[in-house]
Amino acid sequence: MTDVWHHAQEQFFAVADRLKLSPAIKAFLSEPEVVHNFTVPFTMDDGSTRIVSGIRAQHSFARGPAKGGIRFHPGVTIEEVKALSMWMTWKCAVVNVPYGGSKGGMIIDYKALTRREQERATRAYARRLLPYIGPDLDIPAPDVNTGPREMAWICDEYSHYVGHPEPAVITGKPVEYGGSLGRTDATGRGVAFAVQRYFEIKGEPLERKRVVIHGFGNVGQWAARVLSKMGAIIVAVSDSAGGIHAEEGLNVEAAIEHKESTGRVSGFAGTEMSNEELLELECDILVPAALEGAIHAKNARKVGAKLIAEGANGPTTPEADAILEKRGIALIPDVLANAGGVTVSYFEWVQNRQRMYWTIHDVHQRLRDIMRGATDDVCRIANEEKVNWRVAAYLLGVERVAAAVRMTRADF
What we know:
Elements: H1 2-19, H2 23-29, E1 34-43, E2 49-58, E3 66-72, H3 78-94, E4 100-107, H4 115-129, E5 138-142, H5 148-162, H6 186-202, E6 210-214, H7 218-229, E7 233-239, E8 242-245, H8 252-262, E9 271-273, H9 275-279, E10 283-288, E11 305-309, H10 318-326, E12 330-332, H11 334-337, H12 340-354, H13 360-385, H14 389-408
Parallel strand pairs: 3-4, 3-5, 6-7, 6-10, 10-11, 11-12
Antiparallel strand pairs: 1-2, 2-4, 7-8, 8-9
């Protein structure tokens, strides 16, 4: 996982040089402003005490409070969390949401715990995190192996800490506990909105476009649902155990029901294949929606898509980027394509602060407008600067953050 941090920095330095950022701003933005690393003790069901490591990286406060998810996974590292916090900073800036980036994690096999152990571990992590988060400081959200349930536990711990209910401390909460309508589907829906606008700009219909989804969790499922309703054909999906391909198109809702009931896509009607084989399928659109680094130097030459829309964070390595560009494969980068999640998280935070809640129509319409506007901005910069869309998105995001830094630091 160490490579993911080098990956994030490499992307930043390339854009910083193109923007001619001062050495001070370049150095300032190349590392998180703060990284918290702490122990998390909690009680197991047998009465023993277990101690694991917790991390929270806060990359930037230049444009507002930090914002980013919390993942509970045995593969969490400081390097990974730092990289994800940096990507969140650029992502928020690309869609012009007034946040900086953060990310957190606990190094633990969370799925191996009982429900009671999960609650005790989450609340213990929250208690260690309490001094470093808040509605105007750092607003966590769900990520790998966390969801509305964990967000409610953390919110409850924070509310006890400050002595009053404070739903705006965290987003991705259950709707009954101050969450926003439309948050569950936001990231996948945002991917679909960006793809839809991409083809509108090109003057091509999205209807009948063939789509492959690599990673059929929440993001992949919702991207498949929404793209299917827009007229695209979902021909293959996969999870960590492998994939399913149906040349005539999959029944998306039935595939999701199968995945939810069995825990995997294998066994659903279609031709079974490995994840590597799935990435090589000829298609119009590939949505990598799993973990980082899925498309790399060894497989980029075999990718069969005409367009990649990054539903995951960092699914394409810099080496793969160069190969894909030489092959003429277009790409909507993660800092644009999957920004729907943080956008609706921002909506949730706004609703919590106002104590006034929006309809699902309002949420979807506002998300659509922001995603389409950001896609237009990135396309414009790509055309003006004659660069690919990843470079264009980074030029947009990094310059917005750098401009905020200059406003408060005259010596920079």
